[in-house]
Automatic annotation (TrEMBL):
Protein name: NADH dehydrogenase
Organism lineage: Bacteria, Bacillati, Bacillota, Bacilli, Bacillales
Domain (Nitroreductase) ranges: 17-188
Keyword Oxidoreductase tagged: yes
Species the sequence originates in: Domibacillus iocasae
Listed Pfam families: Nitroreductase (PF00881)
Amino acid sequence: MMRKTTTEQTISVQEAIESRRSIRKFIQQPIDQQHLQNIFELVQLSPSAWNLQPWRFHVVTDVNLKKKLEEAAYGQKQVTSAPAVIVVTSDMEDVLTNIGDTVHPGLSEEQKQEEVANLSAFFNGMSVEDRGQWGLNQTNIAFGILMTAVQGYGYASNPMLGFDQDKVRDLLNLPKYVQFAGILPIGKPDDEGYPHHRFTLEKIVKFH
Ligand SMILES: Cc1cc2nc3c(=O)[nH]c(=O)nc-3n(C[C@H](O)[C@H](O)[C@H](O)COP(=O)(O)O)c2cc1C
């Protein structure tokens, strides 16, 4: 399928990665719905093992719900400052219930059945918790791409894991097995954030 191109002014991947900093104060202006659509069309293309795509996104713009999310995030003010907060969840149980949906449509019926049988056998041999963690490893890839896509469309964000997961599960009516990659307040920045502080390449990269 050819994806539609966009006429929006965007920045390069390099610029998006370089300019991203955690921003915790936002301009009070709603996010353009079309931009959100474009961002999720990019995130949708994230890779995952066996193409299982366990990521699910909840976009919270309701003021009262954001207040409750902020309370669940120990009062971190960026949650209500942001015009939208994206809660990034991972739902492997939904993936497994609908496992046939993940199989590539180009395969023959026989190949599809074989793939479904293989995947089911593999995951049925794991606990719900272990396969939840397996799914979360995939969802974290999409979380990273989400941050870059948000930046690419001229918005800023702050990845967050500092929140009470059970409280956020309750707020969004999510089952216990759903895991969180994090929450991501997004909006136009009203702050510069902190300059990058990173380990040296010598420390983190080895050439063999
Ligand atoms: C998974 C994850 C969870 C984080 N949780 C929080 C958080 O709860 N609150 C917060 O203020 N920043 C949080 N951060 C932001 C980090 O502190 C920040 O990314 C790091 O210091 C590097 O700074 P930079 O994002 O400006 O490059 C989190 C970042 C990641 C990737």
